[in-house]
């Protein structure tokens, strides 16, 4: 964003020379040549506009070639300058050039008001210097409506072409080439790689195993084939899974699987299959429908047989000292192993195995050693106060629950009396009594839960007083405490942990 030279002609305020610092915001939606020409035109328009105002100086021009529906670089810079009061006036061609997102537009307006910064548009629909700001909300809404309407028209045009079977993506699936917006099987190695992936999977190999073999053989990845800037030579198991699930390989063209939620966000939502654009036999298949169906069935079976991963105490903070990868918990080892070793084998890293109880013991010992006596007393007192407070609240809840049960039970006695006196008929009595019993049953369940909680509070208080450090590192408390005090645990090849605490510890006493 270029800073412009300050003008010499300034207005006089007493004996002090003053001028308004103007920040001009120019925007077009793309960086195409025609749009960039529009940027230059807007800049020239601002310069001409300010030239007629001797006490205004364009101090900064915010230029953006992105959508006005999201927070872009220039908008973030403008908001920061408003916060720092680096400008006095914000100048726009019109409100649509500020933003086509009401939230962003109002954020600029509100922050400007807070900081005493003026907003002026060249079309004069908004000019806070002259008190013109009533139409701001209307203009911002109109700009967003126009943007949404344009977006909807583009979406409808895309959907019409999808219905016609035209392939709208610019990137074809691995193994295909794109010609005149149609898919054709490539006459190169990629087609055979796709067939191999499906065959290997049906022969019992895992996606991770297939990816490992392809990487070791230096087979170009889909990202490399498509010349992506972030392409790597390493095949990922997720890439292999994506190929195994892609229906394009059996000649079925599927488009419109996701759609944008709103012009104001990049997030997308999944579209139900019934609303997607599916065309059978749209192009030549690489994989038969029978093979594809077998693969999907096997993937479902494997998914059913897979135990979902559980969150463990050190899942996010334990790292391998050699490869830097995350340590993975393994139930059969009751501890952690290097994730790279587990996923890719000993050629890439060794196990670095360490038991969870060993890590807890090491942290517990270091915490005990490096926490001062005063800190221990403070922590202990805080824990006792916390548990006592919870216990007091639970006791109040128990009392309220008993009162509610007593009220309903008295009501049930009254129902019986009214029935005996002939005030209530049998049907009404049974309905009222049944409802009251349901309420009492639910309240008694809640009462039992509260009484169990109260028992746990008493046990916790006893444990804290007897061995509060032991209490800290036991049960549900342990994970919370570990994540509060430990920044990272680096595990060496022999399983020795190097613990990095969030607090400072004496240099000579650090774990090694």
From TrEMBL:
Pfam family for this entry, one: Recombinase
Source taxon at top rank: Bacteria
Molecular function GO terms recorded: DNA binding; DNA strand exchange activity
Residue ranges of coiled coil: 391-460
Domain annotation Recombinase: ranges: 173-305
Keywords: Coiled coil
PANTHER family referenced in this protein's UniProt entry, alphabetically: DNA RECOMBINASE-RELATED, DNA-INVERTASE FROM LAMBDOID PROPHAGE
Protein name as annotated: Recombinase domain-containing protein
